[in-house]
Design brief:
- This protein is of the alpha+beta class.
- 47% of the residues lie in helices and 24% in strands.
- The strands form 3 sheets. Strands 6-7-1-10-11 form a 5-stranded mixed beta sheet. Strands 5-4-8-9-12 form a 5-stranded antiparallel beta sheet, with no helix packed on it. A two-stranded antiparallel ribbon has the order 2-3.
- It starts with a helix and ends with a strand.
- The relative contact order is 0.15.
- Residues 40-45, 220-224, 310-324 and 392-399 have low confidence and may be disordered.
Length: 399
């Protein structure tokens, strides 16, 4: 992402295509041998950090979205189309795998008598992942941006029959947004409209950074026949990393105002992903702590019974080791934007100035646009505005 923000498109795309090879391998495994993607024994005995990091589902989809955006910035529309097609296929694979995973976790928890509701965790900040905004999402991996972009690309390639489903699903994922509704309603009219020297421009505006995961653990002392057993349990907690800002309007050449519409919240998708993952996380934590607790109890009980100092020291070491090794998985893609919005308008070919009002003042972008369709990606990050394509220039103004 940093390479992309620095206009190093080939380097950025090389890194992302390498990551996409991992996603393709994961996708193949999910289709042919999904049991391999279930947690291994080490995650039951140590912690989830020992698992191979395959990326969260929303990260896999956003990877393809940014690969497509980068191809568009490089003028490789057909390659962008390939990335979009893979997105549709990936979402179907994720949906089926998660359906199977939910069933397996529920069955395993029932057999073990384990609790998998994070609402029962004393002190866990439930509201961070269980609130109306999070629950309103259809799932954690489908984004309205990805499907709107699919519609836009298919439309630009003269394929309205493929563009319509993209726009339609974007409306379902982000309802009650007039800008999204117009894309579907006016599709045939735009495709059949004469050139007239106008460019249909899609502005993608990202702000802030994706939330982080923090490992927080709860020490649970349990007394069994007078023996104190320390059962540490760690769980991930979602915390914000920025205060994102999305402008309500985008000004074109100090004349035309384009409406800015929120389309995707990576923050909410990440929280929904954690909420959906918590039953499996809790099941694995319960298995780990039970195994560690039994081992600690047996060592302590045997040491007391035999008055054996070595066994007592071993029990203490195991107790401390349990605390040290118990840690939740905190790995996430932090350079994704927290919030994403879009604006769209038909603009004359040539040079234009695009202006955004931000908390740090006015930011102006000078663009030289050509063709029939174009995508301009803007990113508000750490008081700066980054713009793709790279030939665009950014100017800063006062408040």
């Amino acid at each position: 992402m940093l390479q992309r923000l620095g206009d190093r498109y080939p380097d950025s795309q090389k890194s992302w295509m390498s990551a996409n090879e991992r996603v393709l391998a994961w996708e193949h495994t999910a289709q042919t041998n999904p049991s391999k993607l279930l947690p291994g024994a080490a995650s039951y005995l140590i912690n989830d950090k020992v698992r191979t990091y395959e990326g969260h589902d929303y990260e896999k989809v956003m990877l393809l979205t940014y690969i497509a955006l980068t191809f568009l910035a490089m003028g490789e529309d057909e390659n962008a189309r390939v990335a979009i097609k893979q997105t549709h296929e990936l979402e179907a694979v994720i949906a089926e795998l998660r359906r199977k995973e939910v069933v397996e976790v529920e069955q395993d928890a029932w057999k073990r008598g384990a609790r998998t509701s994070f609402k029962e965790l004393n002190g866990y900040p439930v509201q961070t992942i269980d609130n109306p905004a999070v629950n309103a999402l259809k799932n954690s991996y489908q984004s309205a941006l990805a499907h709107y972009l699919a519609g836009f690309v298919y439309e630009s390639l003269g394929e309205p029959s493929l563009a319509a489903p993209g726009y339609r699903l974007a409306n379902e994922l982000q309802p009650n947004q007039p800008l999204l509704e117009e894309a579907l309603r006016d599709l045939e009219q735009r495709v059949s409209a004469p050139d007239a020297g106008l460019i249909d421009v899609l502005f993608v505006i990202g702000s802030g950074t994706a939330p982080a995961l923090q490992s927080r653990w709860f020490r649970m002392p349990i007394s069994a026949n007078g023996t104190l057993i320390l059962l540490p349990i760690s769980f991930p907690v979602m915390v914000p990393t920025s205060t994102p800002y999305l402008p309500g309007q985008l000004k074109l050449d100090d004349e035309q105002l384009l409406t800015v519409a929120p389309i995707t919240s990576i923050d909410l998708m990440a929280r929904r992903a954690l909420k959906d993952d918590m039953p499996g996380i809790m099941l694995r934590a319960a298995i780990r702590t039970t195994a560690k607790g039994v081992a600690q109890y047996q060592l302590q009980h045997q040491g007391q019974k035999q008055d054996n100092a070595a066994l007592a020291i071993a029990a203490l070491a195991m107790t401390l080791g349990s605390v040290v090794t118990e840690s939740a998985d905190e790995r996430t893609w932090r350079t994704l934007p927290s919030e994403i919005a879009i604006a769209r308008g038909r603009i004359p070919v040539g040079k234009h100035t695009i202006t955004l009002q931000t908390p740090e003042g006015v930011r102006s972008v000078q663009l030289n646009l050509s063709g029939r369709y174009a995508v301009v990606d803007l990113r508000l990050l750490h008081r700066q505005l980054y713009v793709q394509p790279p030939e665009a220039a950014v100017r800063e103004g006062g408040r």
